[in-house]
Amino acid sequence: MTTHGHFINGKAVAGSSGRLHDIFNPSTGEVQSQVALASRSELEQAVDAAEKAFPGWAAVNPQRRARVLFKFKELVEKDMENLAHMLSSEHGKILPDARGDIQRGLEVVEFACGIPHLQKGEYTESAGPGIDVYSMRQPLGVVAGITPFNFPAMIPMWMFSVAIACGNTFINKPSEKDPSVPMRLAELMMEAGAPEGVLNVVNGDKEAVDAIIEDPRIKAISFVGSSDIAHYIYANGAKHGKRVQAFGGAKNHMIILPDADMENVANQLIGSAYGSAGERCMATPVAVPVGEGTADRLVEMLKPRVEGLRIGPSMSEDSDLGPLVSAAHRDRVKSYIQMAVDEGQELVVDGREFSLQGYENGFFMGGTLLDRAKPGHKSYDEEIFGPVLQVVRAQNFEEAVALPSDHQYGNGVAIFTRNGDAAREFARQVNVGMVGVNVPIPVPVAYHTFGGWKRSGFGDTNQHGPEGVRFWTKIKTITQRWPEDIQGSEFVIPTMN
Ligand code: NAD
Q1: Concatenated DSSP letters for 260-293?
Q2: Which of 25, 156, 358, 455 could crosslink 32 through cysteines, CB 3.0-4.6 Å?
Q3: Residue 151 near ligand 1, beta carbon < 6 Å
Q4: Domains of the chain with CATH codes
Protein backbone atom coordinates (compact mmCIF):
# COMPACT_ATOMS: atom_id res chain seq x y z
CA MET A 1 0.00 0.00 0.00
CA THR A 2 1.28 3.51 -0.83
CA THR A 3 2.38 5.67 2.08
CA HIS A 4 2.52 9.38 1.38
CA GLY A 5 5.38 11.16 3.10
CA HIS A 6 6.15 14.87 2.85
CA PHE A 7 7.51 17.20 0.17
CA ILE A 8 10.48 19.08 1.54
CA ASN A 9 13.21 21.04 -0.21
CA GLY A 10 12.09 20.08 -3.69
CA LYS A 11 11.61 16.35 -3.17
CA ALA A 12 9.33 13.72 -1.71
CA VAL A 13 10.65 12.42 1.61
CA ALA A 14 9.38 9.48 3.65
CA GLY A 15 7.84 10.18 7.04
CA SER A 16 9.97 9.18 10.02
CA SER A 17 7.62 9.64 12.98
CA GLY A 18 6.17 6.14 12.70
CA ARG A 19 2.66 7.60 12.98
CA LEU A 20 0.35 6.88 10.01
CA HIS A 21 -3.21 7.84 9.06
CA ASP A 22 -5.49 5.78 6.78
CA ILE A 23 -6.79 7.38 3.58
CA PHE A 24 -10.12 5.96 2.45
CA ASN A 25 -11.83 5.70 -0.87
CA PRO A 26 -15.22 7.06 0.31
CA SER A 27 -17.06 5.34 -2.58
CA THR A 28 -15.96 1.85 -1.56
CA GLY A 29 -15.15 2.40 2.10
CA GLU A 30 -11.74 0.78 1.59
CA VAL A 31 -8.41 2.07 2.87
CA GLN A 32 -6.52 2.94 -0.32
CA SER A 33 -3.29 4.37 1.10
CA GLN A 34 -1.75 5.90 4.18
CA VAL A 35 -0.20 9.22 5.03
CA ALA A 36 2.63 9.87 7.44
CA LEU A 37 1.88 12.28 10.28
CA ALA A 38 4.84 14.57 10.85
CA SER A 39 6.71 14.98 14.07
CA ARG A 40 7.89 18.39 15.24
CA SER A 41 11.40 17.71 13.88
CA GLU A 42 10.05 16.90 10.41
CA LEU A 43 8.19 20.22 10.40
CA GLU A 44 11.45 21.89 11.44
CA GLN A 45 13.21 20.34 8.43
CA ALA A 46 10.65 22.01 6.17
CA VAL A 47 11.15 25.33 7.94
CA ASP A 48 14.95 24.95 7.52
CA ALA A 49 14.45 24.42 3.77
CA ALA A 50 12.01 27.32 3.41
CA GLU A 51 14.23 29.61 5.46
CA LYS A 52 17.24 28.78 3.32
CA ALA A 53 15.28 29.39 0.11
CA PHE A 54 13.73 32.68 1.22
CA PRO A 55 16.47 35.30 0.56
CA GLY A 56 17.09 34.00 -2.98
CA TRP A 57 13.40 33.76 -3.88
CA ALA A 58 12.59 37.19 -2.42
CA ALA A 59 15.39 38.65 -4.55
CA VAL A 60 14.02 37.18 -7.81
CA ASN A 61 12.32 39.98 -9.69
CA PRO A 62 8.51 39.82 -9.66
CA GLN A 63 8.20 39.21 -13.39
CA ARG A 64 10.34 36.09 -13.12
CA ARG A 65 8.35 34.89 -10.13
CA ALA A 66 5.20 35.40 -12.21
CA ARG A 67 6.71 33.32 -15.02
CA VAL A 68 7.02 30.35 -12.66
CA LEU A 69 3.31 30.71 -11.88
CA PHE A 70 2.41 30.95 -15.58
CA LYS A 71 4.28 27.71 -16.16
CA PHE A 72 2.69 26.11 -13.08
CA LYS A 73 -0.77 26.94 -14.44
CA GLU A 74 0.13 25.29 -17.75
CA LEU A 75 1.38 22.15 -15.99
CA VAL A 76 -1.71 21.88 -13.76
CA GLU A 77 -3.95 22.23 -16.81
CA LYS A 78 -2.03 19.42 -18.53
CA ASP A 79 -2.35 17.25 -15.42
CA MET A 80 -6.02 18.12 -14.85
CA GLU A 81 -7.51 14.64 -15.36
CA ASN A 82 -4.92 12.93 -13.19
CA LEU A 83 -5.42 15.52 -10.43
CA ALA A 84 -9.23 15.32 -10.68
CA HIS A 85 -9.16 11.52 -10.35
CA MET A 86 -6.81 11.71 -7.34
CA LEU A 87 -9.06 14.30 -5.76
CA SER A 88 -12.31 12.45 -6.41
CA SER A 89 -10.98 9.15 -5.15
CA GLU A 90 -9.84 10.57 -1.79
CA HIS A 91 -12.55 13.18 -1.20
CA GLY A 92 -15.60 11.50 -2.75
CA LYS A 93 -16.81 14.51 -4.74
CA ILE A 94 -17.85 13.73 -8.32
CA LEU A 95 -15.31 14.26 -11.11
CA PRO A 96 -16.87 17.42 -12.62
CA ASP A 97 -16.84 18.97 -9.15
CA ALA A 98 -13.21 17.91 -8.65
CA ARG A 99 -12.31 19.67 -11.93
CA GLY A 100 -14.14 22.75 -10.63
CA ASP A 101 -12.10 22.61 -7.39
CA ILE A 102 -8.86 22.66 -9.41
CA GLN A 103 -10.14 25.31 -11.85
CA ARG A 104 -11.16 27.72 -9.06
CA GLY A 105 -7.65 27.35 -7.61
CA LEU A 106 -6.11 28.04 -11.02
CA GLU A 107 -8.08 31.26 -11.23
CA VAL A 108 -6.19 32.51 -8.17
CA VAL A 109 -2.94 31.38 -9.82
CA GLU A 110 -3.93 33.54 -12.82
CA PHE A 111 -4.54 36.45 -10.44
CA ALA A 112 -1.12 35.89 -8.83
CA CYS A 113 0.53 36.02 -12.28
CA GLY A 114 -0.21 39.78 -12.13
CA ILE A 115 2.11 40.18 -9.14
CA PRO A 116 4.50 42.69 -10.82
CA HIS A 117 1.57 45.10 -10.92
CA LEU A 118 -0.07 44.02 -7.66
CA GLN A 119 3.01 44.40 -5.48
CA LYS A 120 3.89 47.92 -6.64
CA GLY A 121 4.20 50.51 -3.91
CA GLU A 122 3.11 54.15 -3.81
CA TYR A 123 5.11 57.32 -4.40
CA THR A 124 4.64 60.94 -3.39
CA GLU A 125 6.95 63.50 -4.91
CA SER A 126 7.81 66.60 -2.83
CA ALA A 127 5.95 65.61 0.32
CA GLY A 128 8.15 68.32 1.96
CA PRO A 129 10.98 70.55 0.73
CA GLY A 130 13.13 68.19 -1.34
CA ILE A 131 11.44 65.22 0.33
CA ASP A 132 9.91 62.27 -1.52
CA VAL A 133 8.01 59.45 0.16
CA TYR A 134 7.57 55.97 -1.25
CA SER A 135 6.43 52.59 -0.04
CA MET A 136 7.25 49.00 -0.90
CA ARG A 137 5.49 45.74 -0.11
CA GLN A 138 8.03 43.16 1.02
CA PRO A 139 7.44 39.44 1.60
CA LEU A 140 7.17 38.23 5.19
CA GLY A 141 9.58 35.27 4.97
CA VAL A 142 8.59 31.67 5.74
CA VAL A 143 4.80 31.40 5.89
CA ALA A 144 2.33 28.52 6.30
CA GLY A 145 -1.10 27.40 5.15
CA ILE A 146 -3.22 24.84 7.03
CA THR A 147 -5.98 23.55 4.77
CA PRO A 148 -9.21 21.52 5.06
CA PHE A 149 -10.32 18.32 3.32
CA ASN A 150 -13.15 19.81 1.31
CA PHE A 151 -11.19 21.78 -1.32
CA PRO A 152 -7.80 20.04 -1.44
CA ALA A 153 -6.80 21.85 -4.67
CA MET A 154 -8.48 25.26 -4.52
CA ILE A 155 -7.66 26.29 -0.96
CA PRO A 156 -3.92 25.44 -1.04
CA MET A 157 -3.74 27.34 -4.38
CA TRP A 158 -5.61 30.36 -2.86
CA MET A 159 -2.85 30.57 -0.32
CA PHE A 160 0.44 29.49 -1.84
CA SER A 161 0.06 31.10 -5.26
CA VAL A 162 -0.31 34.60 -3.81
CA ALA A 163 2.21 34.02 -1.00
CA ILE A 164 4.88 32.67 -3.37
CA ALA A 165 4.21 35.34 -5.99
CA CYS A 166 4.90 37.95 -3.29
CA GLY A 167 8.34 36.37 -2.63
CA ASN A 168 7.58 34.26 0.48
CA THR A 169 8.50 30.62 0.91
CA PHE A 170 5.65 28.35 1.91
CA ILE A 171 4.75 25.30 4.00
CA ASN A 172 1.36 23.68 3.35
CA LYS A 173 -0.10 21.38 6.00
CA PRO A 174 -3.02 19.80 4.13
CA SER A 175 -5.86 17.74 5.54
CA GLU A 176 -4.76 14.22 6.44
CA LYS A 177 -7.93 12.94 4.69
CA ASP A 178 -6.85 13.86 1.12
CA PRO A 179 -3.20 14.93 0.86
CA SER A 180 -2.37 13.58 -2.65
CA VAL A 181 -3.40 16.65 -4.62
CA PRO A 182 -1.45 19.17 -2.49
CA MET A 183 1.62 16.88 -2.78
CA ARG A 184 1.26 16.72 -6.57
CA LEU A 185 0.82 20.51 -6.79
CA ALA A 186 4.13 20.98 -4.98
CA GLU A 187 5.85 18.64 -7.46
CA LEU A 188 4.38 20.63 -10.35
CA MET A 189 5.54 23.91 -8.80
CA MET A 190 9.12 22.56 -8.81
CA GLU A 191 8.72 21.42 -12.39
CA ALA A 192 7.53 24.93 -13.21
CA GLY A 193 10.88 26.30 -12.04
CA ALA A 194 10.39 27.24 -8.40
CA PRO A 195 13.66 26.73 -6.50
CA GLU A 196 13.90 23.98 -3.88
CA GLY A 197 12.33 24.94 -0.57
CA VAL A 198 9.93 27.53 -2.02
CA LEU A 199 6.88 25.25 -1.67
CA ASN A 200 6.93 22.45 0.90
CA VAL A 201 4.17 20.10 2.06
CA VAL A 202 4.22 18.62 5.54
CA ASN A 203 1.48 16.10 6.24
CA GLY A 204 0.25 15.75 9.75
CA ASP A 205 -2.22 16.47 12.50
CA LYS A 206 -2.29 18.61 15.64
CA GLU A 207 1.40 17.91 16.34
CA ALA A 208 2.46 19.48 13.01
CA VAL A 209 -0.03 22.33 13.46
CA ASP A 210 1.27 23.16 16.94
CA ALA A 211 4.83 23.07 15.63
CA ILE A 212 3.80 25.60 12.93
CA ILE A 213 2.18 27.84 15.54
CA GLU A 214 5.21 27.74 17.82
CA ASP A 215 8.12 27.97 15.35
CA PRO A 216 9.36 31.58 15.55
CA ARG A 217 10.73 31.39 11.99
CA ILE A 218 7.20 31.12 10.54
CA LYS A 219 5.87 34.65 10.17
CA ALA A 220 2.25 34.13 9.09
CA ILE A 221 -0.43 31.43 9.05
CA SER A 222 -3.46 31.19 6.83
CA PHE A 223 -5.99 28.62 8.03
CA VAL A 224 -9.25 27.28 6.59
CA GLY A 225 -11.29 24.65 8.42
CA SER A 226 -13.83 24.35 11.22
CA SER A 227 -14.45 27.29 13.58
CA ASP A 228 -13.15 25.90 16.86
CA ILE A 229 -9.82 25.00 15.26
CA ALA A 230 -9.80 28.33 13.37
CA HIS A 231 -10.16 30.18 16.66
CA TYR A 232 -7.48 28.03 18.30
CA ILE A 233 -5.04 28.84 15.51
CA TYR A 234 -5.96 32.53 15.47
CA ALA A 235 -5.51 32.94 19.23
CA ASN A 236 -2.35 30.83 19.55
CA GLY A 237 -0.75 32.09 16.36
CA ALA A 238 -1.22 35.68 17.58
CA LYS A 239 0.16 34.71 21.00
CA HIS A 240 3.32 33.58 19.20
CA GLY A 241 3.58 36.92 17.40
CA LYS A 242 2.35 35.75 14.00
CA ARG A 243 0.05 37.34 11.48
CA VAL A 244 -2.99 35.03 11.25
CA GLN A 245 -6.09 34.78 9.11
CA ALA A 246 -8.35 31.86 10.06
CA PHE A 247 -11.56 30.97 8.26
CA GLY A 248 -14.12 28.71 9.89
CA GLY A 249 -17.43 26.95 9.40
CA ALA A 250 -20.63 28.20 7.84
CA LYS A 251 -24.41 27.94 7.75
CA ASN A 252 -25.42 29.88 4.65
CA HIS A 253 -29.01 30.98 4.12
CA MET A 254 -30.95 31.54 0.91
CA ILE A 255 -33.77 34.07 1.32
CA ILE A 256 -36.65 33.59 -1.12
CA LEU A 257 -39.04 36.52 -1.53
CA PRO A 258 -42.58 35.79 -2.78
CA ASP A 259 -41.88 37.41 -6.21
CA ALA A 260 -38.93 35.07 -7.02
CA ASP A 261 -39.13 32.68 -9.97
CA MET A 262 -39.78 29.51 -7.95
CA GLU A 263 -38.74 27.08 -10.67
CA ASN A 264 -35.34 28.77 -10.81
CA VAL A 265 -35.11 28.91 -6.99
CA ALA A 266 -35.83 25.19 -6.60
CA ASN A 267 -33.27 24.25 -9.25
CA GLN A 268 -30.55 26.54 -7.87
CA LEU A 269 -31.19 25.43 -4.31
CA ILE A 270 -30.91 21.75 -5.16
CA GLY A 271 -27.45 22.31 -6.68
CA SER A 272 -26.17 24.56 -3.90
CA ALA A 273 -27.58 22.53 -0.99
CA TYR A 274 -26.73 19.00 -2.17
CA GLY A 275 -23.81 19.49 -4.61
CA SER A 276 -20.58 17.94 -3.28
CA ALA A 277 -22.83 16.20 -0.68
CA GLY A 278 -23.17 19.56 1.09
CA GLU A 279 -19.48 19.54 2.03
CA ARG A 280 -18.84 23.10 0.85
CA CYS A 281 -18.35 26.10 3.07
CA MET A 282 -20.44 28.07 0.56
CA ALA A 283 -23.21 25.46 0.27
CA THR A 284 -26.77 26.56 1.07
CA PRO A 285 -28.03 24.34 3.91
CA VAL A 286 -30.82 26.77 4.91
CA ALA A 287 -33.72 28.04 2.80
CA VAL A 288 -35.76 30.97 4.12
CA PRO A 289 -38.99 31.38 2.16
CA VAL A 290 -40.85 34.56 3.11
CA GLY A 291 -44.56 34.00 3.74
CA GLU A 292 -46.44 30.73 4.28
CA GLY A 293 -47.54 30.51 0.63
CA THR A 294 -43.94 30.79 -0.62
CA ALA A 295 -42.83 28.17 1.92
CA ASP A 296 -45.55 25.67 0.98
CA ARG A 297 -44.76 26.03 -2.74
CA LEU A 298 -41.03 25.72 -2.15
CA VAL A 299 -41.28 22.54 -0.06
CA GLU A 300 -43.67 21.02 -2.57
CA MET A 301 -41.25 21.76 -5.43
CA LEU A 302 -38.15 20.60 -3.55
CA LYS A 303 -39.50 17.23 -2.36
CA PRO A 304 -39.48 15.40 -5.74
CA ARG A 305 -36.17 16.99 -6.67
CA VAL A 306 -34.51 15.77 -3.45
CA GLU A 307 -36.00 12.30 -3.90
CA GLY A 308 -34.70 12.27 -7.48
CA LEU A 309 -31.07 13.16 -6.70
CA ARG A 310 -28.67 10.86 -8.54
CA ILE A 311 -26.20 9.58 -5.95
CA GLY A 312 -23.28 7.52 -7.18
CA PRO A 313 -19.59 6.70 -6.86
CA SER A 314 -17.35 9.74 -7.19
CA MET A 315 -15.83 8.55 -10.49
CA SER A 316 -19.19 8.38 -12.21
CA GLU A 317 -19.75 11.29 -14.60
CA ASP A 318 -23.54 11.17 -14.35
CA SER A 319 -24.11 11.45 -10.61
CA ASP A 320 -25.25 14.63 -8.89
CA LEU A 321 -23.34 13.83 -5.74
CA GLY A 322 -21.05 11.20 -4.31
CA PRO A 323 -20.38 9.86 -0.81
CA LEU A 324 -19.34 11.82 2.27
CA VAL A 325 -15.68 11.98 3.16
CA SER A 326 -15.70 9.45 6.02
CA ALA A 327 -17.98 7.04 7.86
CA ALA A 328 -17.56 9.09 11.04
CA HIS A 329 -18.66 12.28 9.27
CA ARG A 330 -21.64 10.55 7.65
CA ASP A 331 -22.75 9.22 11.05
CA ARG A 332 -22.40 12.71 12.53
CA VAL A 333 -24.60 14.15 9.76
CA LYS A 334 -27.19 11.43 10.43
CA SER A 335 -27.17 12.24 14.14
CA TYR A 336 -28.01 15.88 13.30
CA ILE A 337 -31.04 14.66 11.33
CA GLN A 338 -32.30 12.73 14.36
CA MET A 339 -31.64 15.81 16.50
CA ALA A 340 -33.72 17.95 14.10
CA VAL A 341 -36.60 15.46 14.29
CA ASP A 342 -36.39 15.46 18.09
CA GLU A 343 -36.45 19.28 18.00
CA GLY A 344 -39.79 19.14 16.19
CA GLN A 345 -38.73 19.72 12.57
CA GLU A 346 -40.77 18.03 9.87
CA LEU A 347 -38.82 15.31 8.02
CA VAL A 348 -40.02 15.79 4.42
CA VAL A 349 -37.34 13.56 2.84
CA ASP A 350 -35.18 11.22 4.93
CA GLY A 351 -31.86 10.23 3.32
CA ARG A 352 -30.51 8.21 6.24
CA GLU A 353 -31.37 4.76 4.97
CA PHE A 354 -29.93 5.23 1.47
CA SER A 355 -27.57 2.48 0.32
CA LEU A 356 -25.96 2.18 -3.11
CA GLN A 357 -26.11 -1.25 -4.71
CA GLY A 358 -22.61 -2.62 -5.25
CA TYR A 359 -21.15 0.07 -2.95
CA GLU A 360 -22.75 -0.94 0.35
CA ASN A 361 -19.57 -0.11 2.31
CA GLY A 362 -19.23 3.38 0.80
CA PHE A 363 -19.96 6.46 2.92
CA PHE A 364 -23.17 7.34 1.11
CA MET A 365 -26.36 8.90 2.32
CA GLY A 366 -29.37 10.32 0.53
CA GLY A 367 -30.52 13.92 0.40
CA THR A 368 -32.57 15.03 3.41
CA LEU A 369 -35.14 17.85 3.55
CA LEU A 370 -36.36 19.26 6.88
CA ASP A 371 -39.10 21.87 7.27
CA ARG A 372 -39.90 24.27 10.14
CA ALA A 373 -36.40 24.61 11.61
CA LYS A 374 -35.99 27.54 14.03
CA PRO A 375 -33.26 29.51 15.81
CA GLY A 376 -32.64 27.78 19.12
CA HIS A 377 -32.72 24.35 17.46
CA LYS A 378 -29.18 23.03 17.86
CA SER A 379 -29.39 21.36 14.42
CA TYR A 380 -30.05 24.82 12.90
CA ASP A 381 -27.63 26.78 15.06
CA GLU A 382 -24.71 24.46 14.21
CA GLU A 383 -23.06 23.50 10.92
CA ILE A 384 -24.06 20.02 9.66
CA PHE A 385 -21.89 19.90 6.49
CA GLY A 386 -23.84 17.19 4.68
CA PRO A 387 -26.63 16.72 2.09
CA VAL A 388 -29.26 18.22 4.40
CA LEU A 389 -31.43 21.26 3.66
CA GLN A 390 -33.42 22.92 6.45
CA VAL A 391 -36.33 25.26 5.71
CA VAL A 392 -36.87 28.13 8.16
CA ARG A 393 -40.15 29.93 7.50
CA ALA A 394 -40.00 33.75 7.83
CA GLN A 395 -43.15 35.84 8.02
CA ASN A 396 -41.66 39.01 6.54
CA PHE A 397 -38.54 40.65 5.08
CA GLU A 398 -37.27 41.90 8.47
CA GLU A 399 -37.39 38.39 9.94
CA ALA A 400 -35.62 37.03 6.86
CA VAL A 401 -32.75 39.54 7.17
CA ALA A 402 -32.44 38.85 10.90
CA LEU A 403 -31.99 35.06 10.52
CA PRO A 404 -28.56 35.06 8.78
CA SER A 405 -27.57 38.29 10.54
CA ASP A 406 -28.10 36.82 14.02
CA HIS A 407 -26.63 33.39 13.22
CA GLN A 408 -23.22 32.59 14.75
CA TYR A 409 -21.76 32.03 11.27
CA GLY A 410 -21.52 34.71 8.59
CA ASN A 411 -19.83 33.20 5.55
CA GLY A 412 -22.27 33.54 2.63
CA VAL A 413 -25.92 34.39 2.06
CA ALA A 414 -28.17 34.76 -0.98
CA ILE A 415 -31.44 36.47 -1.80
CA PHE A 416 -33.72 35.48 -4.69
CA THR A 417 -36.17 38.16 -5.85
CA ARG A 418 -37.14 40.37 -8.82
CA ASN A 419 -37.30 43.41 -6.52
CA GLY A 420 -34.16 45.55 -6.86
CA ASP A 421 -34.96 47.74 -3.85
CA ALA A 422 -35.40 44.76 -1.55
CA ALA A 423 -32.21 43.09 -2.83
CA ARG A 424 -30.19 46.29 -2.42
CA GLU A 425 -31.49 46.84 1.11
CA PHE A 426 -30.79 43.21 1.98
CA ALA A 427 -27.18 43.42 0.73
CA ARG A 428 -26.69 46.63 2.73
CA GLN A 429 -28.16 45.35 6.00
CA VAL A 430 -27.19 41.70 6.25
CA ASN A 431 -24.43 40.84 8.74
CA VAL A 432 -22.60 38.33 6.51
CA GLY A 433 -19.33 38.59 4.52
CA MET A 434 -20.36 37.41 1.02
CA VAL A 435 -23.77 38.10 -0.52
CA GLY A 436 -25.43 36.67 -3.65
CA VAL A 437 -28.33 38.37 -5.40
CA ASN A 438 -30.02 35.66 -7.48
CA VAL A 439 -26.66 33.82 -7.21
CA PRO A 440 -26.83 30.78 -4.90
CA ILE A 441 -23.11 30.29 -4.14
CA PRO A 442 -21.59 33.78 -4.13
CA VAL A 443 -17.90 32.76 -4.11
CA PRO A 444 -16.15 35.93 -5.28
CA VAL A 445 -13.92 35.74 -8.37
CA ALA A 446 -10.16 35.54 -7.78
CA TYR A 447 -9.46 39.27 -8.23
CA HIS A 448 -12.05 40.13 -5.57
CA THR A 449 -11.70 38.61 -2.16
CA PHE A 450 -13.05 35.68 -0.12
CA GLY A 451 -13.87 35.81 3.57
CA GLY A 452 -16.72 35.36 6.02
CA TRP A 453 -17.67 37.24 9.18
CA LYS A 454 -18.40 36.32 12.80
CA ARG A 455 -17.39 32.69 13.55
CA SER A 456 -16.69 32.11 9.85
CA GLY A 457 -13.56 34.28 9.85
CA PHE A 458 -11.04 35.40 12.47
CA GLY A 459 -8.51 38.06 11.52
CA ASP A 460 -8.88 41.15 9.42
CA THR A 461 -7.66 40.26 5.93
CA ASN A 462 -9.36 38.02 3.40
CA GLN A 463 -8.11 35.36 0.98
CA HIS A 464 -6.85 36.33 -2.51
CA GLY A 465 -7.54 39.52 -4.43
CA PRO A 466 -5.69 42.66 -3.25
CA GLU A 467 -6.42 41.61 0.37
CA GLY A 468 -4.34 38.46 -0.21
CA VAL A 469 -1.39 40.54 -1.37
CA ARG A 470 -1.71 42.68 1.76
CA PHE A 471 -1.84 39.57 3.99
CA TRP A 472 1.31 38.03 2.52
CA THR A 473 3.41 41.24 2.53
CA LYS A 474 4.47 43.93 4.96
CA ILE A 475 4.64 47.56 3.95
CA LYS A 476 7.74 49.66 4.34
CA THR A 477 7.56 53.44 3.88
CA ILE A 478 10.66 55.41 2.95
CA THR A 479 10.97 59.18 3.42
CA GLN A 480 14.02 60.50 1.56
CA ARG A 481 15.84 63.78 1.10
CA TRP A 482 19.02 64.46 -0.83
CA PRO A 483 20.12 67.81 0.66
CA GLU A 484 22.59 70.00 -1.21
CA ASP A 485 24.04 71.39 2.02
CA ILE A 486 24.26 69.96 5.54
CA GLN A 487 21.33 71.01 7.74
CA GLY A 488 21.45 71.97 11.46
CA SER A 489 19.88 69.80 14.17
CA GLU A 490 16.09 69.80 14.53
CA PHE A 491 14.67 68.94 17.95
CA VAL A 492 10.99 69.35 17.17
CA ILE A 493 9.02 66.68 15.30
CA PRO A 494 8.77 67.69 11.62
CA THR A 495 5.26 68.80 10.56
CA MET A 496 3.77 70.26 7.41
CA ASN A 497 3.42 73.76 8.99
P1 NAD B 1 -10.91 20.73 10.28
O2 NAD B 1 -11.02 21.95 11.14
O3 NAD B 1 -11.20 19.41 10.90
O4 NAD B 1 -9.43 20.62 9.67
C5 NAD B 1 -8.80 21.69 9.04
C6 NAD B 1 -7.31 21.57 9.25
O7 NAD B 1 -7.01 21.65 10.64
C8 NAD B 1 -6.73 20.26 8.74
O9 NAD B 1 -5.49 20.50 8.13
C10 NAD B 1 -6.57 19.45 10.01
O11 NAD B 1 -5.51 18.53 9.94
C12 NAD B 1 -6.28 20.51 11.05
N13 NAD B 1 -6.75 20.11 12.39
C14 NAD B 1 -7.80 19.28 12.67
N15 NAD B 1 -7.92 19.16 14.00
C16 NAD B 1 -6.96 19.91 14.58
C17 NAD B 1 -6.60 20.19 15.92
N18 NAD B 1 -7.26 19.67 16.95
N19 NAD B 1 -5.57 21.03 16.14
C20 NAD B 1 -4.91 21.57 15.11
N21 NAD B 1 -5.21 21.34 13.81
C22 NAD B 1 -6.22 20.51 13.55
O23 NAD B 1 -11.83 20.99 9.00
P24 NAD B 1 -12.21 19.97 7.85
O25 NAD B 1 -13.14 18.96 8.38
O26 NAD B 1 -10.98 19.52 7.14
O27 NAD B 1 -12.98 20.95 6.84
C28 NAD B 1 -14.35 21.24 6.95
C29 NAD B 1 -14.58 22.53 7.71
O30 NAD B 1 -13.90 23.59 7.04
C31 NAD B 1 -16.05 22.94 7.71
O32 NAD B 1 -16.34 23.49 8.97
C33 NAD B 1 -16.13 24.00 6.63
O34 NAD B 1 -17.18 24.93 6.78
C35 NAD B 1 -14.81 24.66 6.80
N36 NAD B 1 -14.41 25.40 5.60
C37 NAD B 1 -14.43 26.76 5.65
C38 NAD B 1 -14.08 27.50 4.54
C39 NAD B 1 -14.08 29.00 4.58
O40 NAD B 1 -13.50 29.60 3.70
N41 NAD B 1 -14.67 29.62 5.58
C42 NAD B 1 -13.71 26.83 3.36
C43 NAD B 1 -13.69 25.44 3.34
C44 NAD B 1 -14.04 24.73 4.49
Answers
A1: S-HHHHHHHHHHHHHGGGG--TT---EEEEBSHH
A2: 25
A3: yes
A4: 2-248+456-478 (3.40.605.10), 253-437 (3.40.309.10)
